[in-house]
Amino acid sequence: MLGQALIRLYHQHYKLHFLGRNKLLGEQIEKQYGATFHQVDLADIDALKTCCLEMDAVVHCAALSSPWGKPEDFKASNIIGTEHILSASQQAGVKRFVHISTPSLYFDFKSQTAIKESDKLPLLFCNEYARTKAEAEQRVLNSALDTIILRPRGIFGPQDRAIVPRLLRFIKNKKLFLPSSRNPLVDLTYVDNVADAIILSVNAPSMTGAIFNITNGQPKNIQFMLSALLAQLVPNTKIVGLNYHAISGLVKVNQWVYQYLLNHKEPRLTDYSAALLHYDQTLDISKAQSVLGYQPKISIEEGIKRYAIWHKNPTI
Known about the structure:
The protein contains twelve helices and 15 strands. By secondary structure, the protein is α/β, with parallel strands linked by helices. It has a single domain (2-312), classed as Rossmann fold, CATH 3.40.50. It has a four-stranded parallel β-sheet, with helices on both faces. A three-stranded mixed β-sheet has the order 8-9-14, covered by helices on one side. A two-stranded parallel ribbon has the order 1-2. The protein starts with a helix and ends with a helix.
């Protein structure tokens, strides 16, 4: 989703190369936008080195981004994959490395608002995704490259096959059941705004190791955003909030069953996913605004409209 947004918005401004494993999709994007596709896996160190030659900047947004998965898979994608692309970039003399991280690092199963990049991270991370992304950040910070790290919150938009589809699965008989009736205040980020933040990072003066929160800068209650989305995708759907404390224990037991008795099959709801829909989480983006000059151009409302249009008629 993020890589395609970057190509869609900036293919006429830069000579873009992009990596991926899906040959058909890569060739379709290459044909539509004129960016150069390389069918490469992050495990292939030699191929990565070749791809990084003569590149001025590398944007690393590949990751296993999921609330569920096996620890070894998260390690392979998020830690080892990051090590490989860092090494390839350094050997190729890349001038700027932009790493896409996550504010999942902040999540501590409690409400947190206006979180700053300098705020202390929890002693235990909320899941394997957050833990491995935190380790990946350390690899980036310890590298010899000129690096910038972005932590975009809740990216949505065309090509989103994670956040919204997972929510839509909970609709039954025109009712969307949420694991909490609390209606928390949260941040989301339309994907085009994140792409803009990436380009600002690529062109920024040297500030090695700088970390920036990225959001739409429009904290809203989650039911407001869901109502706006459902009005366009599944009209007349009623949102029903359940008692979080009553069901959280059941969610944890169910998660244990799926992990240890059902061969790590993904449950419909994890304790992390349930908590995201219960606790407030908003980020302070003043650092990105003042240092990078970041200003989100696409509002939440406009982003929801654009996503709904794409959802009804998906394209590459």
